[in-house]
Write a structure and sequence with these properties.
Strand content of chain A: 15-25%
Distance between the termini of chain B: 39 Å
Largest sheet of chain A: 5 strands, parallel
Distance between the termini of chain A: 53 Å
Shape of chain A: globular
CATH architecture of the largest domain in chain B: 3-Layer(aba) Sandwich
Shape of chain B: globular
Number of strands of chain B: 16
CATH topology of the largest domain in chain A: FAD/NAD(P)-binding domain
Number of helices of chain B: 10
CATH superfamily of the largest domain in chain B: Nucleotide-binding domain of ferredoxin-NADP reductase (FNR) module
Strand content of chain B: 25-35%
Number of strands of chain A: 16
Largest sheet of chain B: 7 strands, antiparallel
Number of domains of chain A: 3
CATH class of the largest domain in chain A: Alpha Beta
CATH architecture of the largest domain in chain A: 3-Layer(bba) Sandwich
Strand order of the largest sheet of chain B: 6-1-2-5-4-3-7
Helix content of chain A: 25-40%
Number of helices of chain A: 17
Largest interface: A-B, 41 and 43 residues
Order of helices and strands of chain B: EEHEEEHEEHEHEHEEHEHEEEHEHH
Oligomer: heterodimer
Strand order of the largest sheet of chain A: 3-2-1-4-16
Number of domains of chain B: 2
């Protein structure tokens, strides 16, 4: 008999006011007993709607059944058929709009806690020393992957399992892409989870070369012509931060979320033993409502600031994961919704001293289908602050597209690539993740990495027939 | 790891290192820069490429230790290695984009201040190698801070040295030399100024008087150097530009200097504290009202 409890087995977390002062992981995850109990809530539906909700179609009831049977290695094998980064996705996927959003239990009660179960299975596999298995025989074909974020790691891992000789080129000094520089330690531990996933991919025989910027250090054409790669996958990520274009935006104390998070996460500015400085705000205003905005807000909080999050639409439209919004509020981030900045106020030395905002109301739906926020005339007000963190999204980095003849981009400067194979307009070159879609999620990038790996496999096989 | 093959003191405050970095040396051009990180805990420090040897696979960097990270660079000796050394970053210098026709019609004046002498050198050298003349002014506060006199003399058509205090050669700031040359009737139609922001600003004010278009190389605060963080943004004309991907060279007449200079001061307090701690140990506990 399934466990018919209406609520999820609660997951243990650090106390909000304690964790708001440290960078340790917020959520402790399920232990074995809790996981088995929660797994028991799955009805093992024949037409499992959760699978439809998963961008990479993990056999969710299949792995959960193995958890019920306490066959955790088996559960890991089931997930591994579809996903290469379960410890990451269990932590950062927006489950409420994907698998859990479709769960039949969610109609009358809380859905099964699929994300937490995925995380449990992945963490347990690591504890038990279970590693993904590489190819027994190498096929001798060389493939280069650009970028070691979720798309690149997945593509490289899949190709290595098929027997390819894969090299990843990473621009930064550490592998992991957004998992390393973007998502903070308190949500995705770097050593325990990210470095472990990177080691797993290396364990499959993938070579990772850091400090190489394709388009500068080596051109993409040289990778093919001089280095002898037969195919290339571009997973170079989203890139350039956007700003609002309001007065005062270049003042001292205004940061892109990318800069703020990179200093903190990649460069470990929060730790005294690392040299990179980070601005210690007393009162920070974060502009934006996505996961990155939540990450920036909660980072500023942990660095000692009072934090306000300013978002122009209403709470229902916040694009961040529900759990992040919930955690941010619990920790003390103050939400100023339906509010939009119009000017950043500065002193005579160009230091931020405040922000001028205007109240918004929701009008007719816009192109995104969400109700368009419109300013309420005469509702301007000022708020004191000494830092403003802009988290408005990113536009693709033009470094590769601008230095590679034959590689086309669309009007948003994203690389053009087919959905079914990730094939770009240049022969032998495939792409996926944020470089193609613009800023999206880890799971979509991972899915695109898989698609790209299949596309490359088909391409090399057909060429060598 | 990137091995230091040579280390040499150039002036009282400036040091040179030749570093083994074959991939960077293969494709770099004058005007571009590298990011150097000495160890796991170090910062990513942007440094303009001073020279390169494609065959030996080496890059020459020149730096003036000011903060903890560059002071740590100084502790490294020949045979030691940097943990990370990435590049080339930024766009190559303007002169590399010019046609032969354009280059022939240019009367170049390069103005170098302090450690900015290092990035001027490869540009003048490149011009010399391609058969074009360039005059060079090098300025420093005092004689002990001048370097590269012989190197620059070998590649420049005319070299003018000046010190603020008159301790060596001409006395006065670099702009006084520009004024004198122009007043003597020397014609220039392209100026490149590289040095402290305040110097570049005043060179631009001077060359503007004489209608000499002036390119400057900006050195703002940077983190990744690949366009990702936006820390290096500048106002150029009415546009926001990122020095790391759109620069580092820009039209000096269009730079908002006051904003650019204020932006470099953001971490001064933190950097000062970190330097004290590095040099003197844990003697400052921040309990004196800060």
């Amino acid at each position: 008999m399934p466990n018919m409890s209406k609520t999820k087995v609660p997951v243990r977390e650090q106390e909000p006011l304690v964790r708001a002062k440290n960078f340790d992981e917020v959520c402790y995850g399920y232990n074995e007993e809790e996981a088995v109990e929660e797994a028991g809530r799955c009805l093992n539906c024949k037409n499992a709607r959760c699978i439809e909700g998963c961008p990479v179609s993990i056999n969710i009831p299949g792995f959960i059944k193995k958890v019920v049977e306490k066959d955790f290695a088996g559960a890991y094998q089931v997930i591994s058929e579809s996903s290469s980064l379960p410890a990451v996705c269990g932590r950062v996927c927006p489950q409420e709009t994907q698998c859990e959003g479709k769960c039949i239990r969610g109609l009358k009660a809380e859905p099964v806690s699929i994300g937490k179960l995925e995380r449990f299975v992945a963490d347990r596999a690591k504890e038990d020393g279970i590693k993904p298995q590489g190819a027994k025989v190498k096929n001798g074909h060389k493939v280069a992957v650009i970028g070691s974020g979720p798309a690149g790691l997945t593509c490289a891992g899949d190709l290595a399992k098929m027997g390819y000789d894969v090299t990843i080129y990473e621009a930064l000094h550490k592998a992991g892409g957004v998992l390393t520089y973007g998502i903070p330690e308190f949500r995705l531990p770097k050593e325990k989870v990210v470095a472990e996933e990177v080691r797993n991919v290396e364990g499959l025989g993938v070579k990772i070369i850091t400090d190489v910027i394709i388009g500068r250090t080596i051109s993409l054409d040289d990778l093919i012509e001089e280095e002898g790669y037969e195919a290339i996958f571009i997973g170079s990520g989203a890139g350039l931060p956007m700003f609002m274009g309001i007065p005062g935006e270049n003042a001292n104390g205004v940061f892109s979320a990318n800069e703020y998070l990179t200093r903190n996460n990649l460069m470990y500015a929060f730790r005294d033993d690392y040299d990179t400085p980070i601005y210690k705000a007393k009162k920070a205003v974060v502009v934006g409502g996505g996961n990155v905005a939540m990450d920036a807000a909660r980072t500023a909080l942990r660095l000692g600031a009072e934090v306000h999050l300013v978002y122009r639409r209403s709470e229902a439209e916040l694009p961040a994961r529900a759990e992040e919004v919930h955690h941010a509020k619990e920790e003390g981030v103050q939400f100023d919704i339906l509010t939009n900045p119009t000017e950043i106020l500065t002193d005579e030395n160009d230091n931020v001293i405040g922000i001028k905002c205007i109240r918004m109301e929701l009008g007719e739906p816009d192109a995104s289908g969400r109700r368009r926020p419109v300013p309420i005339p005469g509702s301007e007000f000022e708020m004191d602050c000494d830092a403003v963190i802009m988290s408005l999204g990113t536009s693709p980095n033009p470094l590769i597209s601008s230095t590679t003849p034959g590689l086309e981009t669309n009007r948003r400067k994203c690389l053009v690539a087919t959905e079914d194979e990730g094939k770009t307009t240049k022969e032998g070159v495939y792409a996926g993740g944020d470089a193609v879609t613009g800023a999206a999620t880890v799971i979509l990038a991972m899915g695109a990495g898989r698609v790209g790996a299949k596309g490359i496999d088909n391409y090399i096989k057909s060429k060598n027939q | 790891m990137y091995k230091i093959l040579k280390k040499k003191q150039l002036s009282a405050v400036v040091w040179l290192m030749v570093v083994e970095a074959p991939l960077v040396a293969r494709n770099c051009q004058p005007g571009q820069f590298v990011i150097v990180k000495n160890d796991e805990v170090g910062e990513r420090i942007p440094l303009t490429i001073c020279d390169y040897d494609r065959e030996k696979g080496t890059i020459t960097i020149v730096f003036q230790p000011v903060g903890v990270s560059t002071l740590k660079f100084l502790k490294l000796e020949e045979g030691d290695s940097f943990q990370d050394f990435v590049g080339p970053l930024g766009r190559p210098s303007d002169i590399l984009e010019m046609s032969e026709e354009e280059l022939k019609n240019k009367k170049f004046l390069f103005v170098a201040g302090g450690v900015g002498t290092a990035p001027v050198y490869p540009q003048v050298k490149w011009l010399k190698e391609h058969g074009y003349d360039a005059d060079v002014i090098i300025g420093a506060r005092t004689k002990d801070l001048l370097f590269f006199e012989d190197e620059m003399r070998a590649v420049a058509k005319n070299l003018y040295l000046t010190t603020d205090d008159g301790s060596y050669m001409h006395k006065g700031v670099v702009t006084s030399v520009i004024d004198e040359l122009v007043e003597q009737g020397v014609e220039y139609n392209h100026c490149v100024a590289i040095g402290p922001m305040i110097m570049m600003k005043f060179v631009c004010l001077t060359t503007k008087k004489y209608n000499i278009p002036t390119i400057v190389s900006m050195n703002p605060i940077m983190v990744d150097g690949t366009g990702m963080c936006g820390a290096c943004r500048l106002t150029v004309g009415d546009e926001i530009k990122f020095a790391c991907v759109d620069g580092p060279e820009f039209d000096g007449f269009k730079i908002n200097w006051s904003e650019a200079m204020k932006r470099t001061t953001l971490y001064k307090t933190e950097e000062g504290r970190a330097k004290l701690k590095y040099e003197e140990g844990e003697t400052h506990h921040g309990n004196c009202g800060n």
